[in-house]
TrEMBL record:
It comes from Agrilutibacter niabensis. Keywords: Membrane, Transmembrane, Transmembrane helix, Transport. It is found in: Membrane. The keyword Lipid biosynthesis does not apply. The keyword Ligase does not apply. This is Sugar porter (SP) family MFS transporter. Its main location: membrane. It is a multi-pass membrane protein. PROSITE patterns: MFS, SUGAR_TRANSPORT_1, SUGAR_TRANSPORT_2.
Amino acid sequence: MSSIETMVGGQEQHATLRVLLISAAAALGGFLFGYDTAVINGAVDAIRGSFGLSAAATGFAVSCALLGSALGAWYAGPLADRHGRVQTMRVAAALLAISAVGAGFAFGVWDLILWRVVGGIGVGVASVIAPTYIAEVSPAHVRGRLGSLQQLAIVLGIFASLLSDAWLAGAAGGASQTLWFGLEAWRWMFLVALVPALVYGALVFGVPESPRHLVAKGRLAEARGVLQQVLGLRDPASLDSKLHDIEHSLRREYRPTLRDLCGPRAGLLPVVWIGILLSVFQQFVGINVIFYYSSTLWHSVGFSEADSFSITVATSIVNVLVTLVAIALVDRLGRKPLLVVGSAGMALTLALMAVCFAHATGTGAQLILPGAWGMTALVAANAYVVFFGLSWGPMVWVLLGEMFPNRIRAIALAVAASAQWLANFLITATFPSLAEIGLTFAYGLYATFAVLSLVFVLRAVRETRGMELEAMRD
């Protein structure tokens, strides 16, 4: 079996092909995360027209899944600690499959919202479990790259959903037009999500349980077997030493609760606050405005519906490519330097977008960017995606999967991910109303948060490159 070898803590560890495959299988939850959250992009105008929604109601219909995601992320940690990481991934797959069918056959806006919330719960669970599981089965020297598979899967899911939206809308002659079996194209956009949900559910039946969860449950023989598989450790003394390290780091005989996150600073441990703020800033820079509303946005400033879909797909391709670059750099340059570059770049490009929309004429659907301002805004938006995809997209998930001590990892990640989903909901739900105030104001606000994120990284974020999970501290 092919492998990458290193010496960590005096023990020879291998990044085996098996650990790559099981990490990829777990990261497929990220694919569903990206697909399920971005699929609404192509359906926004059709849903708004079908149900006669106001700007505020449209914002809620688009963002309601994120409330479910916050709920799913909140309970994912306790569920994973009680029943295991793998069983929890299976629950996420089931919820996502049910949501795809329900949303596709929704008969009204409230019915659609219900099924989107169900899918959101599944997304929230997957968003917590995948990075936790990948971090817990990965050797330290490649943990950043394997952890970045989560973000790669997310951006591939976004790309697949936007490509699917564009193809379905093109085949029907518009997202609101009838396609197959009397169903509008926007309904098929949701129904197609059933396929990856079923694939995810099937694949997670073939991955082993996390060795750290097995140790926490006292199942040492099983943990030894998994460590032997994923790290390639053959020497019994090395296996015993690794098991001892894990046992020592866990230091618990009970399931962690929110009380374990309490600390001297505003009621929480400093590392928990850092995780929460990483999550919040990742959303407050406005990235999901691009992926949830971009088709509507470009359509509103003069591009045709077909061109708007094409631009959105092209942007998602850019996102995938820069995520691959981030994966190549994360274990070489570290997490913090990439976050610094990303924050600075996003601040500049968001400010440029704000300037571009300051030159817009008209309002609402008649908004026009004259002269070269439209192309400048398009370039700035894609440059913004480059900086995000290189930094805050993958780095936040890598850090959340590895920065917390073993004894609180699952529940701390659940709290941080819940904060992320609530921040995502706030940004997504308010964008239509902010856009009515003015896109210059909206993008200027996001640029301000990008500047604040730069200050936060420089002052508070600790580099974790090459550190063993057992070395993480409060």
